[in-house]
Amino acid sequence: MAEPRTLEPEEWEFWDTWMRAQRLLARELDRGLQDDCGISKAEFSVLVSLWRAPGRELRVGELADALDWEKSRVSHMLTRMENRGFVERTSSGTTGRRTGIGLTTEGGRVARDAIAHHAGNIRRLFFDSLTPDHAATLRAWSEQLITRVEGGEVP
Amino acid sequence: MAEPRTLEPEEWEFWDTWMRAQRLLARELDRGLQDDCGISKAEFSVLVSLWRAPGRELRVGELADALDWEKSRVSHMLTRMENRGFVERTSSGTTGRRTGIGLTTEGGRVARDAIAHHAGNIRRLFFDSLTPDHAATLRAWSEQLITRVEGGEVP
DNA sequence: CACTAGAAGTTGACGCGTCAACTCTAGGAC
DNA sequence: GTCCTAGAGTTGACGCGTCAACTTCTAGTG
User: For A5, phi and psi rounded to 5 degrees?
Assistant: First the structure.
């Protein structure tokens, strides 16, 4: 028997609830980052990627891969973050071409701070709301979903 | 004993996985809406809200409440959707002031289509990946999270 | 009725993300 | 050496979302 390809009202309600929870969670975390550290979630991601990188330095393409962003998005963001003094395009190679992205001192400071604050907020908003059982379920489901979608195994 | 307010590496990994799954899910749904129906998720939300409204008509403030958006965001979006012919600002009252937002014929058609397509995609990507057990867990957790965050009950 | 406070809605500026077009460089082929 | 191409990175235009300032309507007070 063919599954219905539409949703029952109850399923819509579930979906709306789910989306709402996601939105609230994301909003709260963004607000925390903005209020406590003065940066956006996107800026945070860049700072963390650089912070964790060997030598605290990456290339644009590597950043793009790590963040799963388009290169041009990375480039735009780096321009803005360079203007704010968080990041610098470091020259390397014989021609002095500016390849490679590094943290400034200020950028490193902010990264450290933000990681601590953000970790606290994630614990407070996410982990504290999960029982071990819920956590296991969410984790399993996330992994399965990633495999399905990234593998293109969705019918 | 005080809980640690930072995250263990394993927790970070869990968090990253979780975020990645969310991102993929959202991206895939957006792509479906865009490819199949030529609209963004935001436009979809507006169309659905109007479609479900009594009389297929709402005011800006009501839309803002329903969507949990800022009024100005709604206003900007309506301007764009009005230009695309999906929506019209209907006059009412004695002074002919344009209050109230309605669907155009075209808007109604697109809304119908999009709801069907989107429902199919949600089933395929979300519901099909859930066992009844997972579903129950996710639902319970979502509701609890909403209560906590909206109630401001987070320490 | 005039006045005013405030709600409802709009606008403009700005930072952000995407897409397509562009520049620059490194590395062959000849 | 010269040319040519593929990849890396940047730029510009445009739609989007937020914030603050603004206009306009409405309702209450005297």
Answer: -95, 15
Measured between its terminal Cα atoms, the distance across chain A in Å is: 17
Read off the pTM. 0.89
Neighbouring C-alpha atoms within 13 Å toward the C-beta of B59:
6
pLDDT digits over A20-31, tens only? 999 999 999 999
Closest CA to A53 of A63, A39, A43: A63
Q: Is A68 left (phi over 0), alpha (psi -120 to 50) or beta?
A: left
Give the domains, in start order, of chain B with CATH numbers. Answer: 37-146 (1.10.10.10)
What whole-number distance in Å separates Cα of residue B30 and Cα of residue B24? Answer: 10
CB-to-strand C contacts below 7 angstroms: A 40, 42-43, 69-70, 72-73, 76-77, 80, 93-95, 97; B 59-62, 64, 71-72, 74-76, 78-79, 89, 98-99
